[in-house]
Design a protein that fits this description.
- The structure is a single chain.
- The protein has 359 residues and is of the alpha/beta class.
- A six-stranded parallel beta sheet has the order 2-3-1-4-5-6, sandwiched between helices.
- The chain starts with a strand and ends with a helix.
- It is built from 15 helices and six strands.
- This is Sulfotransferase family protein.
Amino acid sequence: MARRVFIHIGAPKTGSTYVQNVLWNNVEALRGAGILLPGKFSAHDEAMADLRELPWHPNPAWSWDKLVARAAEWPGDVVITNEGLGAANNAQAARAVRSLRPAEVHILVAARDLWRTFPSMWQQSIRARGVWSFEDFIGAVERGTFEDFWEHHTANRMLRRWGDLVPAEQRHLITVPGPGMPRDTLWRRFASVIGIPDGVCDLSVAPGANTSLGAAEVEVLRRVNRALGDRYPHRAPYQRVVQRHLVDAVLKQRTNEVRFGVGPDRAEWVLDLAEQQIKELDEYPCEVVGDLAELRPVDVAPVQTPDQLHRDQVLDAAIETIIGMIGHAEQLNLQLPQPRESLRRRATRKVRRGLKLWS
């Protein structure tokens, strides 16, 4: 049975991609240090979906129970990481923690300031096949009609939902460092909770954070999603086609120069929310790794929202996206065997087999 199990449950858009890249690119080094990541990255995602009863994987190879069984075979420490775990409901979280005992279960949650979280979260929803405008998204949060944002995408509620299941000393809140901090600060905070010594993991082999799209690019994707109708539903079909061939191959490769954010008219509202968030987390008994003050926005400079883009900006981005997809299609074509050559080779093999029969 594992000695300790660390469940990293998110929140989304808190540098989890960077942390997971470090972990998965150093699996063998971590095993040598007595720390197991059971299965592969896909195993944790499939186990998360199984725990939450989400039909995201048509033929999953992993279930939550299978992941738990693999963890139980390890005599040292185990890390389970998936930012979708934070959205588990009370019963699902309780099942997860209960299934891992008698190991000592630790809950890891990361928090990021709301000024950066709002635009990142909206973009993530569009990249998950969402169709609502940024104004619709932020307006729903402001009016209190989108409680899922607080339940599934921020640290406060998910920390209580999961943290209440374990003793206070086994709850860990990691704050995402602000701009200007060393790139590896987040990793070092994460590693300190688990007890990964410096030098065990090679940070140079891990890619950075999940690339963000610019305002025009994410608006193009939003309109594509809306026009898709029932084609390529979320999650696997959309990821296999749209995410791979449009987002990863084309949109992420653009300069994405036009940044976007909440907008100056809501700055005071966001600052007030940040103070409420800091107060709630300060009152919750857990280990804070970092500084809660980092959840207070420090740069609320005026920036446009995607809804304020001129139609020509969106049109130009759409045209450039089509050009990018033409180039992507050409590259894919070059990677495939030429049809005529393939037919010629098959015909030659048949002739040779025939000659052998007659010889």
